[in-house]
Amino acid sequence: MKLAMVAASIAVLALLFAPLERAFPARPGQPLLRRGWTVDLCFLLGQNLVFAGLITWVVASTAGWLDAAATLVPVRAAFRLLPLWLQAGASIALGDVTIYWFHRACHRYDLLWRFHAVHHSSETLDWLAAFREHPLDGLATQLLLNLPGIVLGLPFEVMGGVVVLRGLWAIFIHSNVRLPLGPLRWILGAPELHHWHHLKTARTEHNFANLAPWVDVVFGTHHRPEAPETHPLGLVEPWPSGYAAQLVRPFVASVEALGVSAHPCTTEDSPRESPSCASSQPHPLIIHYQEAIRRAPPH
């Protein structure tokens, strides 16, 4: 039964996003069955069939523990005096700020980066690539994203709607789509912002807010070049290609423990050098990105 529901969800997502990617491609000519799609499908199935229950249990347990905290009673009572739309808006905004700093920490601290690097290992982005995420990284993300709403006692049905919206938008910003969103791109974000975040460099330092680019603007990490999307994606460090190997990789001390080549241009599909690494010269957009970081004021 659960497998049938997951299969139906995949079909709905494919019918929704595949036509968008064909009609408004950020990278024209990208094949539908691109390299690494089977790995991302494994991540999707693993999330929905195995790890979703664990994440739900942790979030629900955290909510139950906080429900029992007497110190939250007056806070929640005051919060419930606000209109429901304002409760939802405040919870979303606080969640955006919370997850921004966690995401930023994932790019700064080695221990967190080990798990977050799984998500950045895809060398091609589309709607399916959104599911490439280590379950522990996903668990921490979901818990911190929903923690403000849990603390403030946001009604469960409202929180559920927010979770669905965030989930769909997370898929959208990874999709191979470039659409003129106008002013909405400051509120809900746009795929090109997150595509730039996946630039193949040591660790990107911009566009950490997935759903709320205004947070990046406030904290000085918003970056949106106007150039066409030709920059390489993925990791500069060697990384295993298989699903199981990527789940294990964050726990091992070195990549050699998995028998992966230490060549810095190893791809997810081949131990040989990828075309994007064939030249020793960095991609022009990487040079532009590095110069932008050097010019940026300290924050």
Measured as a percent range, the helix fraction is 40-55%
**Biggest sheet, open or closed, and with what strands and sense?**
none
Strand percentage lies at under 5%
Low-confidence region ranges: 253-283, 285-290
Q: What is the subunit organization of this protein?
A: single chain
**The number of domains:** 1
Concise structural overview:
Helix content is 55%, strand content 0%.
Explain how this protein is built.
The structure is a single chain. The chain has 299 residues and is an all-alpha fold. The protein has one domain. The chain contains 11 helices and no strands. Helix 2 runs parallel beside helix 6 and helix 4 runs antiparallel to helix 6. It is globular. The termini are far apart. About 12% of the residues have low confidence.
Indicate the topology.
Layout: H1 2-23, H2 37-67, H3 72-79, H4 84-106, H5 110-120, H6 135-152, H7 156-174, H8 191-197, H9 213-218, H10 243-248, H11 284-295
Features:
299 residues; 11 helices; mainly alpha; single chain
